[in-house]
Amino acid sequence: MRHVRRAAALAAIAATAFGTLTACSMQDAVCGGGEYPVAPVGSTGGACVPKDEEPPKGYVRYPEGKVPEKVGDTWDQYWETHVVDRDGTVRKAPADE
After folding, report:
1. How far is CA 65 from CA 6, 23, 69, in A?
2. Residues sharing a CB contact under 8 Å with residue 85, sequence separation 6 or more, in sequence order
3. Higher pLDDT, 38 or 5
4. How far apart are CA 37 and CA 26, in angstroms?
5. Is 29 exposed, middle or buried (0-12, 13-18, 19+ CB in 10 A)?
6. Contact 49, 55 (CB under 8 A)
7. What is the bridge-based pairing of β-strands 82-84 and 59-61?
8. Cross-referenced InterPro entries, in alphabetical order (predicted)?
9. pTM for this one?
10. Whose CB among 24, 62, 78, 90 lies 3.0–4.6 Å from 67's, allowing a Cys bridge?
11. What is the pLDDT of residues 10-51, one digit of tens each?
């Protein structure tokens, strides 16, 4: 009986670990394949641009090391409350954003 309980406990631990690991990989990407995310100047939000194109007028590339990759990741959440101004300076988003 002890072996059955141990096997059941190990199976439960393995299932939990598998669920935790796969949940991260199942997050949606911010942009599709062949695209990269860009930030609107002075506003929260974002858009996606084909990798072979420059950001459209009114958008900039995210600062290096602060690029959101998955919906809800650290940088995706950060950019909900921060903006890049026209000089490239990162600031807290205005309260009305």
Report:
1. 44, 23, 11
2. 41, 42, 91
3. 38
4. 19
5. middle
6. yes
7. unpaired
8. SCO0607-like
9. 0.70
10. 62
11. 444 544 444 444 445 568 999 999 999 999 999 999 999 999
